[in-house]
Automatic annotation (TrEMBL):
It is a single-pass membrane protein. This is Translocation/assembly module TamB domain-containing protein. Coiled coil: none annotated. The keyword Transmembrane applies. Its main location: membrane. Keywords: Membrane, Transmembrane, Transmembrane helix.
Length: 562
């Protein structure tokens, strides 16, 4: 008789525990049970065929139970699609086994083989005793993608091979097994983490597992983990994590190389502690030309309608699927980390090039990291339209967010007026302010900074150039009038400059073919020049020019970047 699943309120009253919905979907549709058995002349029982079948599962048993206790049975089962039970994994799973017993024996001999998708292949050989103790040897392999539903949103791939024994009462205490992963890959797209060439070994000895793992980051650098994990309910861990020149980054905002060692200690089931110190070898903080979106690159609340299996499998392998996790999400880890960066923390962009140094404390949890610290200016400069200013004061702070708050000041003196440029705000959208002693309007301050003269004495072209410099500093130069004019005319380059005498020069350039480039320049005195560049190779260029005064020239140039 097949016992139906019942409500959870009946559990604990001596009745059946409710079946999982996944298993109900596996065996509950079109379920049939049939058996045919005959007795033998000596009082034994022959099972000619016993079958349990449904839309997703078929299991059969056949064999002979003799009157003296000797027995031989064949047990076979097929699941048409393991995806009915493990989301994201599709394919047929088969179990073939034989159970034997000799007269007077106190147990059964067992041989079994399990095969399925993702290189799943497990073999077991041994015995199961009447007192429910076992002596089994087992070996096999599987692709670690089978673990992805329990790792979501992370994903892992690579072949795992294992061998070991189970000796004693059924349970983890009886397990002795060694598992090895070679050339594995791991990714967590939400935070930009991806590793390859992962080699890992896990030695399970009852309730204790020794872990040794190393891998190379796709961004650069490598990392390793070693230590022990208890396999009981709390899963107490003591792991050493080491990184060497590991690159961590947020595209278009920062990139850092770090080295050091930390410890992960405590129960994994209740939030372990990650503690230690890491050294920042070098960090680059970029100030973009335009504000970056702060909401992330993902599409929140996106629903896939009528998605096919191939698309879903791709999203699962990429670690961006949702709703496939088996079991609860992992408990976030607590953080108590210190990042030491005595120097080589660079802030660059919008004409700024500064080096800072300091320390950063990381608290909170892996689910919500809370940084706190300040990097102070060591040296730096600000380049603006050919003028270079030395930075006199600056810092970059992180308080509760990984978005740095920067404040940098460049100062110079001209004609008795002390003028300053201050860049302050969050690194993705800082603000520019100008000040002076004695106090002057900001446009007047900028005119003195760039042209060393009063605003009223600027030519119209210098005034336009002044506006362009403001656009460059504020990150709006990508949509300036020069940029829009260049696009409208279909040019590859459009620029104008002003010399110390106040004469202006307009230059326009365009690629005529893959190797031919020409530009034309005209200044405010009416003088002009045409230049043609023909790239003979990637390093050799044939260049010719002719000007309005009748001059001309031709040359071959060799250029190479080092």
């Amino acid at each position: 008789m097949v016992q139906p699943a019942i409500c959870s309120r009946c559990w604990g009253r001596g009745r059946w525990r409710p079946a999982s919905r996944k298993w109900i979907s596996l065996i509950g549709d079109g379920l049939t049970v049939q058996a045919r058995a005959t007795t033998t002349a000596d009082g034994g029982l022959r099972i000619d065929e016993a079958e349990l079948a449904s839309d997703g599962l078929q299991a059969t048993i056949s064999g002979l139970q003799q009157a003296d206790g000797a027995a031989r049975f064949a047990v076979n089962a097929v699941i048409d699609n393991i995806g009915r039970v493990v989301p994201g994994i599709g394919g047929r799973v088969t179990l073939d086994s034989n159970v034997t017993r000799t007269a007077g024996d106190t147990g059964y001999g067992v041989t079994a083989q399990l095969a399925g998708p993702s290189a799943l292949n497990v073999r077991a050989n041994g015995r199961v005793n009447d007192d429910f103790t076992v002596q089994l040897a087992m070996n096999g392999g599987l692709d670690s993608v089978l673990l992805n539903p329990s790792l979501e949103p992370a994903s892992v791939s690579g072949l795992v091979r294992f061998d070991g024994t189970v000796n004693g009462p059924i349970g983890l205490n009886a397990l002795r097994v060694t598992a090895r992963l070679s050339d594995g890959r791991y990714s967590l797209p939400a935070v930009g983490v991806a590793f390859r060439n992962i080699d890992a070994t896990a030695q399970v000895n009852g309730l204790s597992a020794q872990i040794d793992l190393s891998g190379t980051s796709l961004s650069g650098g490598d990392a390793s983990i070693s230590g022990r994990i208890r396999l009981d309910g709390a899963r107490e861990a003591d792991l050493a994590v080491r990184v060497n020149e590991l690159i961590v980054q947020q595209p278009q905002l920062f990139e850092a190389s770090i080295s050091g060692a930390v410890r992960l200690i405590g129960p994994l089931a209740r939030g372990p502690l990650v503690t230690g110190e890491v050294n920042v070898n070098q960090a680059e903080i970029s100030i973009p030309n335009s504000p970056l979106g702060r909401a992330g690159m993902g599409l929140q609340g996106l629903v896939h309608v009528g998605e096919d299996a191939a698309s879903r499998e791709t999203r699962i392998n990429a670690g961006i699927a949702t709703g496939t996790r088996l079991g609860p999400a992992p408990v976030p880890m607590r953080l108590d980390l210190r990042l030491n960066a005595p120097g080589r923390v660079f802030v660059r962009g919008r004409g700024l090039d500064a080096e800072l140094g300091g320390t950063l404390e990381l608290g909170g949890t892996t689910r919500r990291v809370v940084p706190a610290g300040t990097f102070n200016l060591l040296r730096g400069r600000l380049d603006l339209l050919g003028n270079r200013f030395t930075l006199t004061d600056g810092s970059a702070s992180m308080v509760g967010s990984f978005m740095p708050f920067i404040r940098l000041t460049a100062t110079t003196e001209s004609d008795g007026v002390l003028t300053s440029v201050t860049l302050s705000g969050q690194a993705d959208s800082p603000e520019i302010t100008f000040s002076s002693v004695p106090e002057l309007p900001q446009d007047e301050v900028l005119a003195r900074l760039i042209f060393r003269r009063a605003l009223t004495s600027l030519s119209p072209f210098q005034a336009a150039q002044l506006a362009m410099s403001v656009a460059t500093l504020t990150g709006r130069s990508d949509n300036s009038i020069i940029s829009r004019t260049r696009q409208a005319l279909g040019l590859d380059d459009l620029d104008f400059t002003v010399n110390d005498a106040g004469n202006t020069q307009l230059r326009a350039g365009r690629h005529i073919g893959e190797r031919l480039y020409t530009d034309v320049s005209v200044d405010s005195t009416g003088e002009g020049e045409v230049t043609i560049n023909l790239d003979l190779t990637s390093n050799i260029t044939l260049r010719g020019r002719a000007d309005s005064s009748g001059g001309s020239g031709l040359g071959i140039f060799f250029e190479r970047d080092y």
